[in-house]
Design brief:
11 strands; about 160 residues; mainly beta; 3-stranded antiparallel β-sheet; 5-stranded mixed beta barrel
Amino acid sequence: MSVSKNNIVVSENRKSLFPSALAVIDSTVSYNQGDLLVFDTTTKVIKVAAAEADGATFLGVATETVVSGKMKKPYSTDVDSSSAISDVAGPAYGVVAELIAKTGIALAPGDSIYLDPATGAQGVTITGTKVVGIYQGKTVASTVAGQKILVAVGARFPTDAFKF
């Protein structure tokens, strides 16, 4: 599982298709802050992408950590499961986030960025079919394992059209 980290570095144009995600999460939903999220049109919930093609319903970057449908608490007690369900912010787009590049790719400013679930829940690459962002950094000849890059993150849901 990915590491929970607020990876949004610029949020001047921040938007969310689900400002409150309560209607689109249930007890099967778990993800970390910073993960790249899509909408499952079958189960009608937010989830971490499993394949690059999931980018067709891309929502953006997770702003909070959710565990089994509830926002992760900073502490745990014996009665933690009895706590009330609090509001959960939906994924953000229109932001610049630090994401993890696939190892060995070359990047240039303005390159289209695609999901790469094989690299992880925050993984991206430069080849695919569903653009989810635009590369914002300097030219890189070949990325190293775990290299973080700046990406202007868009969204594709509900019409599979890339937007900021």
